[in-house]
Amino acid sequence: MVGKVAFVAGGSSGINLGIARGLSAEGAQVVLLSRDETKLQSAATLISSEGGRADWVAADVRDADAVAVALRRSAERQGSFDVVVSGAAGNFLAPANRLSSNGFRTVVDIDLVGTFNVFRHSYPHLRRPGASLVAISAPQAVRPMAEQAHAGAAKAGVNVLVKTLAMEWGREGIRVNAISPGFIADTEGTTRLISTPEARERLLNTIPLGRLGTKDEIADLVLFLVGPKAGYITGTVLDCDGGLILGTR
Ligand code: HXC
Question: Closest Cα to atom 48, ligand 1: which residue?
Answer without folding.
Answer: 102
